[in-house]
Amino acid sequence: MTASPAAWRVDDGAAVSFRDATVAWALAAHGVLVETAKGYGHFVTINDLGAQVQEMSGVRTGAPTRTWVDAVLRKVARRCHAAGEPPLTALCVRPNHTVTDSYRYVLELAGLPVPEDIELHAAYARWQCYAAHGTDVPVGVPPLTPKVAAKRGLSVERAEPKAEPARARMCGECFVQLPASGICGFCNPSR
Questions:
Q1: Is this model's pTM higher than 0.85 or not?
Q2: Which domain does 48 fall in, by range?
């Protein structure tokens, strides 16, 4: 009986070294996290990220996600830091919606101390990710993830940018709001 490889390519079943697997997964993870950042308030759990990166990369493993995802997120953190991008790893959370240990690595890369409230710090980092990837970010304090907010007794409001209300049409002569017909009853009383 032969032991199965730690990681393998789906297309041909060839063994892949753990190092090569994490590189492939990190490339895919960056893409998944960029897509995640395109929706305000969106985030991904480590298990969902693990499944997506294996599917996208075509490299699989039977090892539990928690045993290898940190290595992948550290590679993504280094890439974001080197490119001057916001820390996409803030978008990846544990099943309880708290940031992973790789978020502390983001702070280490930036030469920042670990803040007293790392979850709020990560919420601001997620906000930067949303803004950098084209999402309209509302003014105010960024929301915590739902489970973190609930644990703190806070309501979770996924604030979507509000559309401006439609402006009423006004008569150009007397500046009174026009009825649905669009004809001013004061300027054109016969109609």
A1: no
A2: 7-151
